[in-house]
Each structure stands twice: as C-alpha cells, then as structure tokens.
Design goal:
The protein is mainly alpha-helical. The protein folds into 2 domains: about 120 residues, DNA polymerase, domain 1 (Orthogonal Bundle), CATH 1.10.150.130; about 180 residues, hpI Integrase, Chain A. Helix content is about 55%, strand content about 5%. It contains 13 helices and 7 strands. A hairpin with a 5-residue loop joins β6 and β7. The longest helix is centred in the C-terminal third of the chain and has 22 residues.
C-alpha cells in the first residue's frame, strides 16, 4: 500500500513519483496564489510581471502540447521550446513575429523563476520535491556587446537634434551616456525623481532597490531644455512617448529601443548594435577609462554582485591592451609602431 501525506490545504496526496509534478489545473491555481503571495510580500511590480508572464507561458505551452501534468519531462520540453520555439512555423508562443532566438540570459532567468515557483510549491506542501531541481541551470556566457565609440555617441547626439522630438531625444541620450541607466529605469523615471539643481535623480532598479544617480552640467542643461515649458504633475513620467498607442504617456522600453534604432540609422552607424543596452555598456567602459574604480561603477550600475561589473572591466582592459600595442614607447623607440 502506498503511503499518503496531507498537504498544507488538507487534502491527501499519494507519495509516489506524482509528488514531483502538478496537474495543469493545479499549476494554474497555484500560479495565481503564488503571485498573490508575492504581492503581499511586497515584491516589485516588475518582478511580479516577469513571474506572471512566464508562468502564463508555461500554462499555454502545456495546454498546446496537451500535457495533463507538469513535471521533469514537461519542464525540459518547455525550456527546449523557449530556446528553439522561434523555428516553428507559427513562431514562438503562436506569434509569427516572435521568430528570433532567445538570449541565454533570458533562458537562465526563466529557469530561475520556475525554480522559485516550484520551491514555493514545496514549501506550501503541494509538492514533495521540486522537479526543476534536476534540470541544470542554463549556461549564460557574458554579453560582450561592443560599446559605442565617442565619435558614434557624437553622431547619435547630432542625429537627435534633427529628430522630430530633439529636446527629448537629446536628453535621453545624454542622461543614459552620463549615468548608464537601464532601459526599464529610464522609462520608469518620474519628473519628481529628478533634482536639476543638485544634478541627481532617484532610480528604482531591479527588485525595487532605489539608488541615486548623478549627472553632469551638460546633461542638466539637456534635461532643462526638455522640461522647459512643461507644467507636469508630480507623478508624471519624465520621458513621454510621441507616437503609437501610448502617445503622451510614459515612453515604453519598446519605444526606447525603437528610438535608438531610428537614431542609429539616421547617424549612419554600422557594425554596432544601436540599443539602450549598448549605451549602458558605453557608459561603463568610458567611466573605467576615465579612472572610476570598480566599486563605484558597481554602485552606479545598480549591480548586486561585483562579478556583474567585471565584464566591463574586461572590455576596458582589452581596449588598454590594443592601445598599448599601438602606442608602446619601446616599439616607437625602435621605429616599430603597431
């Protein structure tokens, strides 16, 4: 006779291999409970949105494949689909436009969200063990995005002056180049977050962690020129969209990525990905080149761990190596400038 044990909700479950899986209906119900618990625990809205999005995708996948339950096999199939689903005729998630490979960082983040969810299910007594514990964390090799050169930044700023919204676009580029803010952080800024007099602003980073970012006189002027003439309410978004469904509302991350692509094309930049993340890389590398120490850079970027900052150190060191080969005093002495 198989043993049974009570769950935290008073029902009894059979103590066999099924204890490492949930029916799709159970998963859907527990998903809602998990999100409610996260809200009660005051997790950030961004964290809750990421959990809601992924778990909804998991339910969609299970129903599309007509799986009755979700365990080890189904989770492996799901993560495989996350990586390769863009190759299917209908696109990933049934969207023909979703036909690009998923970044390794995204797959790793998905694994982390699933792990947190199933561990919560175990803690709640709905599972005896987490099925995802037997799936290794996906490899995420450091993103070696090529930063903009200073000349390319100048070209982007010049292109912003010729755009349909020159004050806003110039202020966005100046602020991101001067602070290294994430795209999500830029889009979530409110007018009340900016202190033009002191040249600083309050940023809500990942996980709802707030930090202070500082900007120069040139960026202060760009922000002043953009805000001059506006009479915003205290909670109004700093950067407003000027087109699309969200016109006159907060600029979205999609809108910000589109802006960079449009300005990059207008500036004639080729060979470098024109994106908000590239500008973040550029800030980090240029700050290191100018002498900022890694601890200060870690704080400025809002990184929790020094290891995340080291990727920029490697980029800056590679640049110094190339510069030394080109301008080595000994090589110049012997007439062998390289």
């Amino acid at each position: 006779m198989r043993k049974t044990q009570p769950s935290s909700r008073g029902s009894y479950r059979t103590a066999d291999a099924d204890e490492a899986s949930l029916t799709v209906s159970q998963l859907e119900r527990l998903k809602d409970s998990y999100l409610l618990a996260g809200d009660i625990e005051r997790h950030s809205e961004r964290t809750l949105d990421a959990r809601r999005d992924l778990l909804s995708k998991l339910v969609w996948f299970l129903r599309q494949r007509e799986y009755a339950s979700c365990g080890l096999h189904e989770l492996r199939a799901f993560l495989h689909y996350v990586t390769h689903g863009h190759k299917e005729p209908g696109g990933r998630w049934g969207n023909p436009r979703n036909n690009r490979p998923t970044k390794p960082r995204t797959v790793k983040n998905y694994h982390g969200i699933l792990r947190a969810f199933f561990n919560w299910c175990v803690a709640e007594g709905d599972l005896a063990e987490s099925p995802i514990e037997r799936i290794a964390v996906p490899v995420d090799r450091p993103d070696q995005v090529q930063p903009f050169s200073l000349d390319e930044v100048r070209k982007l700023l010049a292109a912003a002056k010729r755009s349909q919204n020159p004050q806003r676009d110039g202020a966005i580029l100046a602020l991101m180049f001067d602070t290294g803010l994430r795209a999500s952080e830029v889009c979530s800024l409110r007018v009340a977050d900016v202190d033009l007099h002191r040249g600083r602003l309050t940023v809500e980073g990942k996980g709802g962690k707030a930090r202070t970012a500082f900007f120069s006189r040139d960026t202060k002027k760009a922000l002043y020129d953009y805000l001059n003439g506006r009479d915003p309410e205290e909670g109004e978004a700093l950067f407003l969209a000027d087109r699309g469904q969200n016109a006159d509302g907060a600029l979205t991350r999609h809108g910000l990525r589109f802006l960079y692509g449009r300005l990059g094309k207008a500036a004639g930049i080729d060979g470098v990905r024109c994106s908000p993340h590239t500008m973040r890389h550029t800030f980090a590398v240029e700050a290191l080149r100018a002498g900022m120490n890694t601890f200060s850079l870690q704080i400025a970027l809002g990184h929790c761990h020094p290891s995340m900052t080291q990727r920029y150190v490697k980029l800056a060191e590679a640049d110094l190596e190339a510069q030394h080969r080109q301008f080595s005093p000994m090589s110049r002495l012997k007439g062998k400038q390289r």
